[in-house]
Amino acid sequence: MIIDIVVCIKQVPRTGEVEVDPETGNLIREGVESQINPYDLHAIEAAIACRESRGGRVTALSMGPPQAEEALREALWMGVDEGILLSDRDFAGADTLATSYTLARAVQHLPHQLIICGMQTTDGDTAQVGPGMAEFLDVPHASYVKQFDFAAGQRLNVTLDLGGDEQIVEIDLPCLLTVTADLNQPRLPSFRRKLETAERDIPTWDRSDLQVSEDAGYFGLEGSPTRVREIFPPESDIEQVSWTGDPARLGIRLVEELKELRFL
User: Fold this and answer.
1) 23: number of Cβ within 10 Å
2) Labelling 85: which of 61, 138, 202, 253 has CA 20 to 30 A away?
3) CATH code for the domain defined by 5-210
4) What does the alpha-carbon distance between residue 6 and residue 59 come to, in Å, rounded to a whole number?
């Protein structure tokens, strides 16, 4: 069975030191070095591996400012067949609901039996966009996928990471998966692919390309029911300790320390 796949990716800041616009609550991305969201690299790898084993096409889809084209070009270097950028002032300031809606409306215009997303983004960590897209598309979805393969008929066997436990389910195609970093090892971008795709056009779609009426849908800041009040890095109370000395004595000390902490 040939599978056409849409993989959704996002360009995120490479650093956690990002300022927030005090009026809109949006991240100020100008001048900040960016990268493909790390979890999305595993989504890209899964999509390419499926195409290599079953045929079909892989389309990378991203929503963001014009600079997000860089992420789509890197996805081309990894091996996806096409990249499409959703970029419009009407999309700016979107929360997870508006982002899910906009991406879902774009996916409707692309051939697909499978949609793959990273489980979350490092600049938000909400893990809401993938499931939100599935709801707007009215397709089944599975989150925190650590393994999947094709079952008989139009179905997938999917293993979910439930945080210390696993669940194995069957899911009908078409469907949407959000994947964890345990799924695979992403390949590196290919220099040969970089040369081959140097002149490849990255189409940019705006709101009119989604063919949604002016008074319908959730777009950008106006279509976002939530606002960001504050963004801050998580606090860490981890204490690092370094010991030196005779390995045998250090082993005894480690056991005593673990007993005191009630790990043994």
Assistant:
1) 6
2) 138
3) 3.40.50.620
4) 5
